[in-house]
Amino acid sequence: MISYFCFRFFILLSLTTTFVVQSRQLNAISYVDNNDSTTTPTQGKRWAILIAGSNYYANYRHQADVCHAYQILKNGGLEDENIVVFMYDDIAHSQFNPRPGIIINKPNGTDVYKGVPKDYTGENVNVDNFFAVILGNKTGITGGSGKVVDSGPNDRIFIYYTDHGGPGMLGMPSDSDYLSADDFINVLKKKHEAKSYKSMVIYVEACESGSIFEGILPRNLNIYAVTAANAEENSWATYCPGDYPSPPSEFDTCLGDLFSISWLEDSDIHDLRNETLERQYRVVRRRTGFDALGTSSHVMQYGSMQFEKDSVFSYLGTNPENEDFAAPNSALELDHPINSPITSNVVSQRDATLLHFWHKLRRAPGGSQKKAEAHKELVGELCYRKQIDEIIIKIIKALFGHRNESDRMLLLESVQSAGKPLVDDWNCFKMLVNSFKKYCGGRSVSRYEMKYGRGFANMCNAGVDVKQATATIIEACSNIHSPSS
How far apart are CA 262 and CA 265, in angstroms? Predict the structure, then answer.
């Protein structure tokens, strides 16, 4: 009798354990919306798109951010079939990587590269593929895995984009490719019209990233967007050589971006079922150091603000190892150490490239070929920036006359009133930017030329003749030299 009782108890215990494990796995892959308007809970899938829009070892941090994000989603229970990864994939096995085949996102960090799917790499990291993936348009894909977000009306989508940016645009690895804000918003509108998602969260790490959404992201698309900076500011790299905490001594490049590591490291340790998007926003805004003069950015929110009350779990899942995690007085409180502002000497996204070249030069043996190459890279980048600055002034003088310096700066830096988009005529903006990028830009690892996007927007806002402006840009750029020349 005792043996029979023990046998039944063992079977019951096994079934219960199996049910708990399977339930946890199911809840990690999908979500249950208990706030649905119907009387029964509605279950949907989670989808994610992760994109690093840069290449070259000097931009190590962008691919490191994306790889880290993948590990969070994977630990949160999302399957690879629901995660689409865009990364050039030239960092892990770069000749400059001191740890071949490994990418880290923080000092003494673990390898975040292992297991990351290579859906779209190299030249397949481009705007057309990115938009096709969002829309679930398999026929619009060129190269890569062909994986798209084949979502339905009850599904939730998370998009994370990290790269260089400029007013009204985000970068891509190709010299001739970039994402414009209005094109992005139009794709999101199409996705909404197709009724192929329930809600969407977008995180963007880039300089002037607020300009991607300000004044042009409608509030009725069920999209909640968070950006590393407002429409006028730099975003910042961190874990850079010379910082504290500093990367391992063999690294001469920044390991992460400030906004990105703030939300990533917050997600690493918390039970995300107990953290709302709004709370993570406040944590990230504080850690990004919004009150640190000169070395900070204002983390911003846009779109459908009602979704800030959703749990982060609804989009990222959660690591079972963090179940019910809470430090004394709750680790989610803003005065917890993990939420403290970064106090190291962070570096602006655009200047992180200069820092890399400087440390590369400093570490190279005196009189060596490596020393000469590093010197050429640093001087070439500085000279290229000087050329771009001079060409912009030349264009303004040709189009608007010989204005004094204050008038020129006003044209370059003037900002539309709060809540208005960067530019009134996006077609004009894209034509000028495309011309400048084709004939002047795309030659710098740092995408330095993107900083002048506001200048081109203001030219359009001032009613410049597009044909005349395009011809002026082509003429002004005729003698430019690339940083490597």
Answer: 6
Q: Which tokens go with 290?
A: 């919004």
The single-letter code of the amino acid at 299 is: V
Other Cβ atoms within 10 Å of 344 Cβ, number: 16
Strands in 130-214 per DSSP E: 156-162, 165-166, 169-171, 178-180, 199-205
Which of these ranges, 41-50, 231-240, 258-267, 345-354, has the smallest mean pLDDT? Answer: 41-50
Phi, psi of 296 (to 5 degrees): -150, 170
In angstroms, the first-to-last Cα distance of the chain is 88
Q: Quick count: other Cβ atoms within 10 Å of Cβ 115?
A: 11
Identify the DSSP state of 274.
G
DSSP at 296: -
Q: How many CB atoms lie within 10 A of CB 30?
A: 19
pLDDT digits (tens, 9 = 90+) for 353-380: 999 999 999 999 999 999 999 999 999 9
Report the distance separating Cα 303 and Cα 220, nearest Å.
8
Query: Token pair of 32, please?
Result: 């249950």
Residues 253 and 374: beta-carbon distance below 8 Å: no
Alpha-helical regions (H) of 173-292:
181-193, 258-269, 277-287
What average pLDDT does this structure show over 5-10? 39
Q: Which residues are catalytic?
A: 164, 207
Helices (H), ranges, 30-120: 60-75
177 neighbors 129 (Cβ within 8 angstroms): no
Beta-strand (E) ranges in 206-318? Answer: 223-227, 236-238, 256-257, 300-303
pTM for this model (two decimals): 0.90
Give mean pLDDT, residues 341-359: 82
**CA distances, 55 to each of 91, 94, 446 (Å):** 8, 11, 10
Averaged pLDDT for residues 345-356: 90
Question: Which phi and psi angles does 203 have, rounded to 5°?
Answer: -110, 130
Dihedral angle over CA of 313, 179, 262, 70, nearest 10: 50
For residue 343, the Cα-to-chain-centroid distance in whole angstroms is: 22
Give the pLDDT band of residue 1 (cuts 50, 70, 90): very low
Alpha helices for 401-465 (secondary structure H): 405-413, 426-439, 453-461
Q: How far apart are CA 268 and CA 325, in angstroms?
A: 11
Q: Are 46 and 150 in contact (CB under 8 A)?
A: no
